[in-house]
Structure formats: structure tokens, C-alpha cells
Amino acid sequence: MIYLDCAATSFQKPAAVRYAVSRAMETLSSPGRGGYESAMAAAEVLLDCRLALADLFCVKDPERVVFTSSATHGLNIAIGSLVGPGDRVVISGYEHNAVWRTLRGIGADVRIAASPLFDPDAAVEAFRKLLPGAKAAVCTQVSNVFGYILPVDKIAALCREMGVPLIVDASQGAGTVGLDFDGLGCAFAAMPGHKGLLGPQGTGVLLCRDERVRPLIFGGTGSVSAEAAMPAFLPDRLEPGTHNVPGIAGLLEGVKWLRRKTPAALLAHERELLAAFSDALAGDRRIRQFRAPDPVDQAGVLSVQIGETDCEEAAERLAERGIDVRAGLHCAPLAHETAGTLDRGTVRFSFSPFNTAGEVLTAAEAVEKILG
Questions:
Q1: Does domain 15-261 sit in CATH 3.30.70.580?
Q2: What pLDDT does 65 receive?
């Protein structure tokens, strides 16, 4: 099997991640619910993970690092804290359904700052035109469909200038594309633990600017239990119920691993794989590639259309050859509409630190065989 669907989840993990999950299930209980050894050890793992994440994403106060069950969970908290029915919200043209459906469900007045693929200057100008009067803005750091790295730093500067709180969806960039949370000055940044952070599924992270947030779920926190209201302070305000301790233990090891390797080195590796794969297909004009003219604008994700072959059929035929990819709309129809691929979707190849040059060349050969 050659796994090239890392934009969905990092199926391949450092060995320490698997070991940490197993060990946590044997040795750690529930943090904040007792002063005995297994509870205190669990609390220490949570603190260590918050500290590691705070350091990775330049968050001065680790208490503003909140554990969630997914990026979708975190985005729902962030959006629900800032947006109400009828509020005007500006979003990029490349948002995931975790943003699009949440805003539609609230009944927000959504304005789309649409701009051409791999054109960061146009993206900035699109936001500049729509931000005045907005209640909030949301921008993905990296498109999960095309690997397009949006100019979040410049969009964040515009939002600061106009007094519009910004939510960053860092789902596809966390772990490879740098994120200076305090430097950006954004209100929130949400991400999963199971993609670039290399942790287990069922983990996520929400970075919060301040404590004025609305809990999405209410319940016990192990703190101020006599009060009927949720605690006013972070992270307790947003972390009711029992933590996913095994998942967080695994996430901690994933973050430790990528910090040793460095996100910059991992991004460079994935870009090299993308270039090798793309170059191997470049001679066949029947294959349409969505590759950035400037490599700096693209992370390790490449979408293609393979001749007139249906994208879902192409993915099935690749799977028969042991190549695991994703096809269709990738839970991001807005991105496909913006890029002009909504009618067909794409076949997405997404690379990880564990893929090799030999694997991507084998995948390119498999694509060519589909066309005959």
C-alpha cells in the first residue's frame, strides 16, 4: 500500500505515538478528578502537551491552548463565540464545510472573498473590499483540496486594521506551515490533532485569544464544581467532561516528533515529493494538474483531473493498484466552485513525512496506466 491521503488523516505515525496511546490506557486515569498517582500523571501529560503546542504555535499563555475532539469542534466553538444570526461574516473562497455549514446553520450573512487559485495578492484584495462592516472573518491557512497556502498573515493584518476578529482554520497547515498565533493577533485558530500534528484521530486543538468564548458543550470540569455556570477561565471553560487522555498522550508524542524534525524540513520534504510526482506527469497533456506557479504558495497537496476519467472511478482504479488517494469534492465544495472544478471534482494526492520519492513515482506510473 502507498498511502497518499494525508490531507484526510496521517495514517502513518511515529512509533512513539502508538506506544503513548497504549501506555496511557494502562497507566493514566482522569486528570483533575483526584490527587492519586494515575490522575496526577494524566494531568502532567495534558500540561506537557499544552506547553508543546503553545511553543509550536507561539502562544505565550498555554492556558489558551484548548483540547477539542476535532478541528470541526473547535471551529464550531470559535464561530459560535463571534457570530450570531444575520451577522456579516467574510470568508475565503476555499473554506471547508466545517466553516461553510456552521455559518449557514447559524444563519449568518456570509460574504465570500473569492479569488483565483494560487493568487495571494488577489485574495488580500478580495478581503480588503468585503471586510468593512463585517462582524468576523474566517480564512483557511491551506486549502485541503489544492494545497494553496493563503496569505493569512496579510489578511490578519487587514482584520486588525479594520477591527474585525479573524478565525484561522489551520487544519491543513498545522505541523508544516508555520503559525505565529500571538503575532497574527487572530481571535482563534483551530486544527485537528490527527493530520500534520501526527496524533490520533479524535483529537483537536483550539487556540484562543481571550476568555470571552461561548462553550459549545456544558458539563463537569473538575473545577469550581459548586457553581451552576461553566468556569469563566480557560481552558476549563471549553473542556467539559472527561478528556481523551490516550489521544492527547499520542498527540504530545506527535508534536515532539515534528518539533525535532522541524515543520520547515517536513514542508520541504513534502514539496519535493509533490514536485517529483508532478514532474513525472507533466509530459501528458491529458492530465490537468493544479500546481502553483510559485512553489512557495503550495503545501504538500496536489489535485489532478485524469483525462475524461471520472474522478471517483480513477481513485478506485488507483486503489486496485495499491495507491490510496481521495477523489470528489473533499468536503469543500466552495473551494471547487471557486477553482472551477465543482462539476467533476478532483483526484487529490497528499504527501506526508513518511512517503518516499520511489512511492510517488510508482503512483505517477499508476496514473499513466489509467489512461492507457
A1: no
A2: 98
